[in-house]
Specification:
Number of strands: 22
Distance between the termini: 73 Å
Structural class: alpha/beta
Bound molecules: nicotinamide-adenine-dinucleotide
Number of helices: 15
Strand order of the largest sheet: 14-15-16-13-12-18-19
Length: 491
């Protein structure tokens, strides 16, 4: 496990020598310390990224050259995947099979953007048709510059990959600020890019607190673009700060995603997808299936089956075989979830499963899989992200009622529809105000497909070719190609 920051291709102690404890959420024990970077370290990291961009020529490498680095990074992630997955469990708490899945996806993300980097060699300069044949106009796609990437704790290495891989593919350099409670695998990424011989300063990793290192990165005048995933509150602050010097921004800020089950749905399938949607990663997922809307005819049956299955889930240390639900990431997150469930009940919701810290553990931030019904529409539990294994289930009668309920949210990240009627599935998916709609499934995520939200769920899209667009500027280059003098001002 690393104990230093990765700046300008070297491991270095933070200027102020500060440290942060790393706590295993399953045992509440301090297992390591990481450097507590501050504004001084961000200054060094941004200078290195600036030099790598402005002077050392990273943006002038070919897409094929950048693709080769990205492929090598992916290869090294795969070689170390078991070690990285285990670090993720120690740091975040998630069950080991989920962590292995994340690490595989992280490697896949680097491979995918390697392919897009290679394609840029043929597509980054194109002639376009214009209305005056005395001129020729070309459009060039160029790297945005120095990126500040700020990521959350729910998918540590994967979220790092979603920012770093497309940024490097585009020719940007980046300073990455991982979440303070899950920085271990991000630091390992430093060791990986070092082994891949990525030029110094292209990727810099500064761990530390959001209010210190994060804030310094956001307000740094030499950063051209901010890419952020996390809470709406901080996203809004970042947007305001970025406005001061018109930094480019992309934001991914979570949601309160509905899943609609119609009478004709495959109920067992729906139960399976709801379980995956809300209990995977302990419900700490921006697109989590946190509001389930069920049509009258199948409401009782679905709720009964959901309660039965939720009660069967095995909780425990993520490193233990057979565990499906690990601890929440931190004491702060656990306290937040406990408070949200208590408040829901005060507001009139019925607790029909879970709702407590399980009695069998004397330590660890565990919380039972929890189901709430009769949740008032104006309550905190219905409207706000709880970010834990807590689902609100509600009945509806008509399709239009379901749509009104589903869309009545300030968020619009994801939504899901369960029905065997394809016409209805198309109609409902078109009417849902969300950036991602799943039909007869929930949560599958593909590196090739756009990811991001409507409304207060964010700005911009990650993944796919849209993810690369985040890191590209568009330049018009127009040449006067006529042999005739222009003859407008000079006669
Ligand atoms: P957060 O938004 O506070 O933190 C996310 C990242 O932003 C971290 O790296 C953090 O250090 C950094 N940060 C915090 N304050 C900053 C600042 N002033 N300037 C720059 N960077 C700053 O999220 P959190 O405290 O980790 O979690 C709080 C809530 O956010 C959760 O309960 C959940 O609702 C939501 N969340 C959403 C996602 C998502 O994927 N959309 C992920 C994690 C958390």
């Amino acid at each position: 496990m690393r104990t230093q920051l990765f700046i300008d291709g070297r491991w270095t102690d933070p200027v102020n020598k500060g440290q942060l404890d790393v706590i295993n959420p399953a045992t509440e024990q301090v297992i390591h310390v990481i450097p507590k970077g501050t504004a001084e370290d961000i200054e060094l990291a941004v200078s290195a990224a600036r030099r790598a961009f402005d002077k050392d020529g990273w943006p002038n490498t070919t897409g094929a050259q950048r693709g080769a680095y990205l492929r090598r990074i992916a290869e090294l992630i795969r070689e170390r995947s078991e070690m990285l997955a285990r670090l993720e469990v120690l740091d975040n708490g998630k069950p080991l099979p989920e962590a292995r899945w994340d690490i595989g996806d992280a490697a896949g993300c680097f491979e995918y953007y390697a392919g897009l980097a290679e394609q840029l060699d043929d597509t980054s300069v194109v002639d376009i048709a214009i209305s005056d044949d005395r001129f020729r106009t070309r459009v060039r796609r160029e790297a945005v510059g120095v990126v500040g990437g700020i990521i959350p704790w729910n998918y540590p290495l994967l979220m790092a990959s979603w920012k770093v891989a497309p940024a490097l593919a585009a020719g940007c350099t980046i300073v990455l600020k991982p979440a303070e409670n899950t920085s271990l695998t991000a630091l390992e990424l430093g060791a990986i890019v070092q082994e891949a011989e990525l030029p110094a300063g292209v990727l810099n990793i500064v761990t530390g607190l959001g209010a210190e290192a994060g804030q310094a990165l956001v307000s740094h005048p030499q950063v051209d673009k901010l890419a952020f995933t996390g809470s709406g509150r901080i996203g809004s602050q970042i947007m305001a700060e970025a406005a001061k010097d018109i930094k480019r921004i992309s934001l991914e800020l979570g949601g309160k995603s509905p899943l609609i089950v119609f009478d004709d749905a495959d109920i067992e399938g729906a139960v399976e997808w709801i379980m995956f949607g809300i209990f995977w990663n302990q419900g700490q997922v921006c697109s989590a299936t946190s509001r389930v809307l069920v049509q009258d005819g199948v409401y009782d049956k679905l709720l009964t089956r959901l309660i039965e299955e939720a009660k069967k889930i095995t909780l425990g240390d993520g490193l233990k075989e057979g565990v499906l639900l690990g601890p929440l990431v931190s004491k702060q997150q656990l306290d937040q979830v406990i408070a949200a469930v208590a408040r829901a009940q005060e507001d009139g919701a019925q607790l029909v499963a879970g709702g407590h810290r399980p009695g069998e553990f004397s330590q660890g931030y565990f919380f039972q899989p929890t189901i709430l019904t009769e949740v008032p529409l104006d309550s905190h539990a219905w409207k706000e992200e709880i970010f834990g294994p807590v689902v609100c289930v509600r009945r509806f009668t008509t399709e239009s009622e379901a749509l009104t309920l589903a869309n009545d949210s300030r968020f619009g990240l994801a939504a899901a529809v369960m029905t065997q009627d394809n016409v209805r599935a198309d109609r409902v998916s078109a009417a849902l105000r969300a950036g991602i709609v799943w039909i007869n499934c929930s949560q599958p995520t593909f590196t090739e497909a756009p990811w991001g939200g409507y409304k207060q769920s964010g700005i911009g899209r990650e993944l796919g070719k849209w993810g690369l667009e985040n890191y590209l500027e568009t330049k018009q280059v127009t040449t006067y190609i006529s042999r005739d003098p222009w003859g407008w001002y000079i006669k």
